[in-house]
Design goal:
alpha+beta; 133 residues; PduO/GlcC-like; four-stranded antiparallel sheet; PduO/GlcC-like_sf; 4 helices; GlcG_carb_metab_protein; 4 strands; Heme-binding protein
Length: 133
């Protein structure tokens, strides 16, 4: 039998706080979603000024990173590299900004961010994850 860590509300709160701080420091209006390893929502925060669709996209980025066990940037690179058929893949968004949370080599969740440029979304997500140490 395998065992692995899971995200508690304490860790989720730390991720949100650090991601929010990174976004606010840069004056970026974003939505931040945190999901578990199955892509199920644990938390969502839409900062002032972020378009409502940002909440949906952030959640889909986080879900895709969790169930795909990789950053969504890889999917975006695949599509940009000419593999357009991947756009029809079910349940996966091919937009950068979804980053898995990895503990002891296991994906335990993911963070998705939407609202600014793709690399800035990823920067905010990674800042949130970095708060876990």
């Amino acid at each position: 039998m395998y065992t692995k860590a899971v995200l508690s509300q304490t860790e989720v709160s730390r991720i949100l706080a650090a991601a929010r701080a990174e976004a606010q420091q840069n004056q970026w209006a974003v939505a931040i979603a945190v999901v578990d390893d199955g892509g199920h929502p644990l938390a969502l925060e839409r900062l002032d000024g972020c378009a409502p669709i940002g909440a949906y996209i952030a959640t889909e980025k986080a879900r895709s990173a969790a169930i795909g066990r990789r950053e969504t940037k890889g999917y975006e690179d695949m599509v940009n590299g000419g593999r357009n058929a991947f756009l029809s893949a079910p349940l996966v968004t091919s937009l950068e900004g979804g980053v898995p949370v990895i503990v002891d080599g296991q994906v335990v969740g993911a963070v998705g961010v939407s609202g600014v440029k793709a690399d800035q979304d990823a920067q905010v997500a990674k800042a949130g994850i970095a708060a876990l140490g």
